[in-house]
Every structure is written in structure tokens, then in C-alpha cells.
Amino acid sequence: MQYKMICLDMDGTLLNDDKIISERNKEAIKKAHDKGVKIAISTGRLFTSAKYYAEILGVEAPIIASNGAYIREKDKDDVIYEALLGKENCEKIWSIIEKYNFFNCFNTYDTVISNKPFPKEYPYYKLNEDLPEDRKINLEVSANFQGVFERDKDKIVKAICLSEDYDRIRKAKEEIKALGEFEVVSSSLNNFEIMKKGSSKGKAVEVLAGFYGLSREEVICMGDGENDLSMLQYVGMGIAMGNAEYYVKDNAKYVTDTNNNDGVAKAIEKFVL
Questions:
Q1: Which domains are seen in the chain, by residue range?
Q2: pLDDT per position as a tens digit, 4-46
């Protein structure tokens, strides 16, 4: 099979544990791109954050952001796809998660709005320290989410809950899932993310493949977490990282090396180069 698009998760996949793209990964991606293979980033992160890493790759890279709720090419303003939560859904989500007193966020494509001050170890806070002003992710603290929902009703694509109390995170996640009205996934034990029903990385890969006139059999996806399952199961070649959860590996067609050992490059070298 000649593969024509590669979709890469970021954290735990393209990035090593130090949040760096290795030289071998960059080289393999560049070679695949030079052969005419489309490279796409597929992440739970905001578009603005994903764009920063896509630019490091130095290739044209469409971006699937916010776990599939937002798709856009990094160098164009035209949005390929977006699935907005809308004011009523945001209010319904907030009515449930507010009582748990987590660190809660509602995200647009370029802004994180939280109910509590951002801790210094928060990933976007740390990333902003090294970015020029025009590349920083907007971080906003608001005590009035109702006002935020009205102001950003046509922008919010995702809600996030974070806590080190894993039992309460699990309980709140199940309460939201029981509604049957949202897509709910986790990227680690200390969080879960809420998107509009039908939003997923798998759906977004389907949309992006259709946008470029590709079949699912012509696409490779790589990932390591629960939020990657849908895209690994959808495409012709779903590849799990060596550091992936066991159930992700069980649903993949191939398991490559870890994110700290150039797993992305090794898979590209095997299946594309």
C-alpha cells in the first residue's frame, strides 16, 4: 500500500518526554513530505500550540486540534472543520463539573479560560515563557463562566477537567458520559476532556482525508492514548507507540518504538521510506 497521509499525535508520540521533536523524527517526516506524503498533526492541544510545533517540522502540516473539534491548515486562516460546543452545552457541562471544584478550562482555538489561576507547571504557562508575544497561547482566568459562555458561544470547542484526585476525576467523567450527549476522553489519569457529540480524532481524520480526496486505506495514524483510539481504528494503518497504554496497542495494527526512542521515525522508515 502506498500511504499518502500521516497523522501524528503530539504528546507521547511526536514529542519525547522533554516535549522535544527529535532530529531523527524531523528528518523522517521531511523525507516523507518530500515524497509527496501529507503530514498532519492530530492533538488534544489548542490549534495555536500545535501550530508552534508544526512550524518546527518545517513542512506544510494541516492541524487537527482539540481532539478533532477543530481542523485548519497552519498557514491559512480558512477553517476546514469545527465542532463548537455552544452556549447551552457549556452551561450543562459547567452545571455538573462545577461541584467537583477541579481546575476547569474551556478552550477556543487560541485561548484557555480557567476558573482558577494557572499554576506555573501548567504546560501552556511553561510554553509561553519561551515564546514571542505573537506566538503565546492566551491564558484567561474568569470567575464568571456564564459571561464567558455568552461571549465565546461561537468559539468554544472543548472543556477540560484536571485534578490529581483520580477517583473524583473518574467519577465526574462517568457522570458526564452518562448523559450520552458529549464525547468524553482522557489523555492521562489526571484529566478528561469534553467535546461536542461526534467529535473525535477519528472523525477529524475522516474529514481531512475526504478534504484531500484520500481513502482511509491511504492514511497512517500514530498515537499513544485513549483519545487516539478512534483514529487508529479508522485508518488503514493504525500505529501505537511503544509507550502506549495496553488497550491502545491491542487496537493498533502495528506497535513501533517509544516516543523517547524515535518511534515515529522508525514507523515512517518502515512503512513510507
A1: 5-82+200-271 (3.40.50.1000), 86-196 (3.30.1240.10)
A2: 999 999 999 999 999 999 999 999 999 999 999 999 999 988 9
